[in-house]
Amino acid sequence: MKFSRELINGIIIFLGIGIYFLILDFMxxxxxxxxxxxxxxxxxxxxxxxxxxxxxxxIRGYNKNLLSAIVTSMIGAILSIACLLAYIQFKGGEPYLKxxxxxxxxxxxxxxxxxxxxxxxxxxxxxxLIVSFCLMQYWKDKVEVINKVD
Length: 150
Prior knowledge:
Layout lengths: L2 H24 L6 H5 L1 H18 L5 H30 L2 H8 L11 H31 L7
Helix pairs in contact: 1-3, 1-4, 3-4, 3-6, 4-6
């Protein structure tokens, strides 16, 4: 497992998510939940890119590739949340968060910026694990042959 591969693809995920959400915000579409959920495609692209690069380099083993996929998606998630924290502060802090949080799944109420980011961290961790496991189900016969009769 080359950590630089995970870092590069994690940064690609971060940039993709950042650009996607900035476009949604500038177009005034950030309140539409279904458009926000499409960021999972960006995460899937970055994770798939990592697994396919591992497979092309001959890195075999389900667990190695699964760990590589999870690390890639978590790097993208952590960088995205850190920049979202800075973006919320830049846009006005708590008042901006109040408008933003009302349309999120776990939003609403009186959340602080830190509570909001912790909630996003849990949400992104779950999404990262799901995407990694789903893509490994696709790649499992390509990265490790199990239960095959010679």
